[in-house]
Amino acid sequence: MMKALIALVIIVVQIIVSTLWLRRFGQGPLEKLWRLVTWGRAKHSATHRHQHRDQPGAFTSSRE
């Protein structure tokens, strides 16, 4: 019974910590390390990838 309680506490703590981590960083530390090792660079931020041309701050040509 005690082992099950310890396991439950560990799972709850992991859920809380991972939720807070992913709100701040967007990817886990091991994912970032794996991406650096395999691709030689980190992933671009999610906001950069999903910007559209008509959104403020989006990249546009100087001729537009």
Describe what you observe in this structure:
- Helices cover 61% and strands 0% of the residues.
- The N and C termini lie far apart (68 Å).
- The model is unreliable at 47-52 (pLDDT under 50).
- It is elongated.
- It is mainly alpha-helical and 64 residues long.
Percent of residues in beta strands:
under 5%
> What integer value in Å does the Rg equal?
19 Å
Bulk shape = elongated
Low-confidence stretches: 47-52
Provide a count of the helices.
3
Rounded mean pLDDT score = 77
Helix content range: 55-70%
Question: Which H/E pattern describes the elements?
Answer: HHH
Largest sheet: none
Class of secondary structure makeup: mainly alpha
Distance linking N and C termini: 68 Å
Query: How many DSSP E strands?
Result: 0
Descriptors for this entry?
single chain, 3 helices, 64 residues, mainly alpha
In short:
The protein is 61% helix and 0% strand.
Blueprint of the fold:
Elements lengths: L1 H24 L3 H11 L6 H4 L15
